[in-house]
Amino acid sequence: MKKIVMSLMISSVIGCGLSGCYTNPSMSVEVTSHHTGCETKDIQISDEVMELNDDHTWTAKCKGKTYRCSDHDSAGSDCLELHE
User: Fold this and answer.
1) Residue 70 pLDDT more than 50?
2) Phi and psi at residue 72, in whole multiples of 5°?
3) In a domain, 14, yes or no
4) In this structure, is residue 40 part of a structural domain?
């Protein structure tokens, strides 16, 4: 039983890594810079989530503004300013 559970856990970790469900902060910074005009060194990323369906979302702060950004392979990427 322990071997089966361990095999499932290892398979899940490998599958998650291969499917890209781990975040890539440098990509998020580059996308944010492209959509906001902020320099990459000035961008702070938080709340970054990568879903299994390839939806990738995050919050970015730059020059006193906050943006909610997203990226999806088929739909492209975008950053919208949040007015708090």
Assistant:
1) yes
2) -145, 140
3) no
4) yes
